[in-house]
Amino acid sequence: MSEIARSLHELNAMDTLAGKDSPVHRIDPRAKVITFVVFAGCVVSFRKYEVSALLPYFLFPAVILPLGRIPMGFLARKVLLVLPIAVLIGIFNPIFDRTVLFSVAGLGVSGGMVSFTSILLRFVLTVVAALMLVAVTGFNGICATLERFGVPRAFSVQLMMLYRYLFVLTAEGVRMSRARELRSVGRAGTGLRDFSALIGHLLLRTWHRAQRIHMAMLSRCFRGEFFLRRPMRLGSADIVFTLAWSSAFIVMRLVNMPQAVGRFLLEVFP
Amino acid sequence: MYPDGTEALSDISIRITHGESVAVVGANGAGKSTLLLHLNGFLKPSSGSVRIGDYPLTKETLQEVRRTVGMIFQDPDDQLFMSTIQEDVAFGPFNLGLPRDEVDQRVADALERMGINHLRDKPPFRLSAGEKRRAAIATVLSMTPDIMVLDEPTTGLDPLGRRQIITILREFTHTKIIATHDLDLVLDLCARTIVLHQGRIWADGQTCDIFRDEALLHECHLEKPLSMQGCPVCSAGTPED
After folding, report:
1. Structural domain harbouring B164
2. Does A223 contact B143 at a Cβ distance shorter than 8 Å?
3. In this predicted model, what pLDDT tens digit does every residue of B87-110 receive, in sequence order?
4. Which of A15, A171, A218 has the CB atom closest to B83's CB atom?
5. Mapping DSSP to helix (H, G, I), strand (E, B) and coil, where does residue B159 land?
6. What whole-number distance in Å separates Cα of residue B20 and Cα of residue B205?
7. B115-144, pLDDT tens digit by residue?
8. B136 occurs within a structural domain
9. Are strands B55-56 and B51-52 parallel, antiparallel or unpaired?
10. Helices B129-141 and B159-171, interaxial angle, to 10°?
11. What is the Cα–Cα distance from B53 to A40, expressed in whole angstroms?
């Protein structure tokens, strides 16, 4: 399978996951979006040398992933795919920040190493949470929530169309790439000239395809509104979900749990 | 009329009455798909008018016309754009503003009628060509249209899939307008045939009469349906020893 075909498959897999039925899927999209925002806000608000206080936040994916029936391996692959971005952001920290903060078994650990680890942890946590949100809510659910929160409809519909356009673009890309591979006999073609022609054609093809899809939507009376497979209904379970998790995130932000547990254990078993 | 001034269709005057099953045939580029796009308001005639039932096709009546005319496009991939088949079939009824219970009922009915209930939670890309075609028809059936317009409904289907589509279309008793190259399908489903050639109506009449007119078919780059051509083995006679 080519890289583009694989991307299309994975994109579809996210949609398939969103179509599952589980206790987490049944939570109102608004409740999930608010919970995610609190989670992300707490995680990114830590100071740059914080590592231990971030660890309890892994409880969130650890509970939601099995409950939402999201395969761990699938998510891990996606995180690994974008991890190089975080590595690029923090890779120079250990070089520039050499202040030793503490030592482990006589080995000094620099501030740069700690801040680099912190960046990686925060990156993994927020990316996992974002993917999880899409996998248990669906892109339509997220866009509908944005609309309910006051985002103009034109913007949310644009966002949804853009998401669907990704599928069209990738599907057309797969066909073109297959046709090129079959005739390039394992070589890269004629380089930039080939590439620019391919990109131009891809744009035109997806444009035409998008037009045909839009016609099919209009012929079924589309008036700029998408509907959700589950109606939005904010019940007590949704409120409990949001309040419980949000409070937990805020407590984790205010109290360094691993340190507190460590201190407590030392008091009990001196 | 194309932006460059080329006439795609001209002198088109057709009246199709309720319950009729009409085929629109013609060579590639004859204007079949262009004609169909006028029936749903995607294209507007540069002169003259289109009337669907009691409504002239105008900006004000467009939504009502689109509810009345169910359009099934040539490529089912263009018609199936949601994450699952169920969502795709529900798309039209939701846009009609129907309550959720009614939408669910219509989705269930359409899927049942097309025999694809087991595919309701599947994403469209996982379906075979025949299944996609049936799903595309279900997306339109759920809107309970009075007129069904189909562009090449059997293209790319295997013989069994083709036969299933023909059987399903036969059960749809409202008006059907089918643009196709599959002349055997026309024989099976349509009593009336309109032949388009170079953007004009070359013939309009009983399907059997038109398909017997070899000169007309030849002139319009068409051939007699296979079922009217006779068996090549029998007509070859007894092979000599």
Report:
1. 21-235
2. no
3. 899 999 999 989 989 999 999 999
4. A15
5. helix
6. 12
7. 899 998 888 877 888 899 999 999 999 999
8. yes
9. antiparallel
10. 10
11. 56
Of B40, B81, B95, the CB nearest to A213: B81
Among candidates B67, B73, B87 on the partner chain, residue whose Cβ is nearest the Cβ of A212: B73
A chain contacts of residue B79, beta-carbon cutoff 8 Å: 216
For chain B, helix, strand, coil in percent to 5 are 40, 15, 45
Q: Is residue B230 part of a domain?
A: yes
Q: For residue A43, give Cα distances in angstroms to A56, A249, B172.
A: 10, 8, 58
- The C-alpha atoms of residue B50 and residue B43 are separated, in whole angstroms, by 10
Question: Is B125's CB within 8 Å of A225's CB?
Answer: no
Taking the C-alpha atoms of residue A103 and residue A111, their distance in angstroms, rounded to an integer, is 11
Cα B155 to Cα A177, A230, B188, distances in angstroms: 25, 35, 16
Q: CA–CA separation, A133 vs A161, rounded Å?
A: 19
Q: Where are the domains of chain A?
A: 20-137+232-254, 139-223
Residue with token string 């994109």: A11
**CATH assignment of the domain containing B79:** 3.40.50.300
Count: domains in chain B:
1
> Residue B215's CB: how many other CB atoms inside 10 A?
7
Residue B100 lies in a domain: yes
Tokens 């131009």 sit on residue:
A200
Among the listed residues A135, A121, A132, the one whose alpha carbon sits nearest the alpha carbon of residue A43: A121
| Alpha carbon distance A144, A160 (integer Å) | 9
Q: What is the ipTM of this complex?
A: 0.82
CA distance A82 to A76: 10
Whether the per-residue pLDDT at A250 is higher than 70: the answer is yes
For residue A172, give the chain B residue with the closest CA.
B77
**Phi-psi domain of B48 (left: phi exceeds 0; alpha: psi -120 through 50; beta: other):** left
